[in-house]
């Protein structure tokens, strides 16, 4: 019963999240799965490592598919996503935690930059609203 309530709450959070918040959730999920995969490799739980790392790979694939290549930042992110994906695949195949950690470090840096950009955007929006600027959608 409690689990159903928790799942419903999580589903509601996802359904009402902004695209920016969803991206942050995906980064956090990706990090969670990569850390689970790394821990499973260290515990020699190969099947669990494979499952977790493939979940992280799926999230990175989603990031790659949804990049809007009209923006310069996307042209900079694509090689990072490709490299991170390759580190995960190779780390999974070789059961190499160093390669997985390299992927974790990259995604953590991108996640932190994304969170910082969201915070700055909220501050900028707050400044505009305080100045009496109105948004016409």
Automatic annotation (TrEMBL):
Subcellular localization, as worded in the UniProt entry: Cytoplasm, Cytosol
Parts of the chain that traverse the membrane: none
Top-rank lineage group of the source organism: Bacteria
InterPro entries: FliS, FliS_sf
Cross-referenced SUPFAM superfamilies: Flagellar export chaperone FliS (SSF101116)
GO BP: any one term: bacterial-type flagellum-dependent cell motility
Keywords associated with the record: Bacterial flagellum biogenesis, Cell projection, Chaperone, Cilium, Cytoplasm, Flagellum
PANTHER family assigned to the protein according to its UniProt record, in alphabetical order: FLAGELLAR SECRETION CHAPERONE FLIS
Family membership noted in the UniProt record: Belongs to the FliS family.
Protein's name according to its UniProt entry: Flagellar secretion chaperone FliS
Native source organism of the sequence: Selenomonas caprae
């Amino acid at each position: 019963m409690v689990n159903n309530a928790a799942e419903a709450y999580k589903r509601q959070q996802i359904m009402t999240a902004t695209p920016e918040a969803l991206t942050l959730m995906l980064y956090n999920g990706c990090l969670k799965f990569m850390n689970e995969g790394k821990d499973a490799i260290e515990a020699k739980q190969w099947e669990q490592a494979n499952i977790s790392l493939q979940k992280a790979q799926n999230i990175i694939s989603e990031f790659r598919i949804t990049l809007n290549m009209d923006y310069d930042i996307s042209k900079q992110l694509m090689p990072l996503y490709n490299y991170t994906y390759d580190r995960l695949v190779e780390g999974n195949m070789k059961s190499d935690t160093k390669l997985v950690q390299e992927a974790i470090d990259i995604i953590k840096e991108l996640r932190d930059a994304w969170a910082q950009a969201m915070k700055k955007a909220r501050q900028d929006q707050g400044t505009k609203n305080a100045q009496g600027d109105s948004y016409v959608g």
